[in-house]
Amino acid sequence: GGYLWAIYFYPDGKSPEDNAAYISLFIALASEGTDVRALFELTLLDQSGKERHKVHSHFGRTLESGPYTLKYRGSMWGYKRFFKRMLLEQSDYLKDDCLSVHCSVGVVMSHTEGPKIFSIAVPPSNIGHHFGQLLESGKQTDVSFEVDGEFFPAHKLVLAARSPVFRAQLFGPMKDHNTKQIEVEDMEAPVFKVQCNTSSSCVGLKLMLLLIAFTGLRFMMATSH
């Protein structure tokens, strides 16, 4: 991480109140730096070959809670009571009055951020305009309205998508695949034509369907011969 580090070992402990009952082990920032965030691991090595090492590690923690911040040069992290001295003297960690310590340091170079909330502008829907263009083109029409002797082509799927009345009649349990014409009663052709011309907007289309639903309609069966 670009920093120098030093290990401090206190065979009689760092705290006088412990009366030399524990050894203390620390790692310190030995170079210039401020607010250095790092993860540490101190391992007291088993020198008998059994590999029963004593490990104190921060590396299993998350980046939010794990790193320790060293404020300035000389700041230390470690354990005042790393190991009981009496047990250490009788253990395999000590050999020929020597200890072997392995230290790992992981410097966190970036800070963590919480989840970001983005605001995305949603454009207004143009589905009504597309429905209007489809109606005006007359392509793939599969049903027509008969109003006062005049015929107006339409699309079953569009009608069913916009009106529960048409959805039930055209695709419900009582549907008839031969339905080709829908007769609209109690409405004049010019009024219906005006609604069709304004159906490029969702408002116009809804208004047209509501007028048809409430004035009544009758399906004409057109069979091919």
Automatic annotation (TrEMBL):
Alphabetical GO biological process terms: protein ubiquitination
Superkingdom: Eukaryota
Q: The BTB domain covers which part of the protein?
A: 141-193
Residues in MATH domain copies? 1-105
Pathway it acts in?
Answer: Protein modification; protein ubiquitination
Task: Check the record and name the InterPro entries matching this protein.
Answer: BPM1-6, BTB/POZ_dom, MATH/TRAF_dom, SKP1/BTB/POZ_sf, TRAF-like
Task: Report the Pfam families cross-referenced here.
Answer: BTB, MATH_2
Which PANTHER family does the record cross-reference, listed alphabetically?
BTB/POZ AND MATH DOMAIN-CONTAINING PROTEIN 1, BTB_POZ AND MATH DOMAIN-CONTAINING PROTEIN 2-LIKE
For this entry, the protein name equals BTB domain-containing protein
| Native source organism of the sequence | Gossypium raimondii (Peruvian cotton)
The upper taxonomy is: Eukaryota, Viridiplantae, Streptophyta, Embryophyta, Tracheophyta
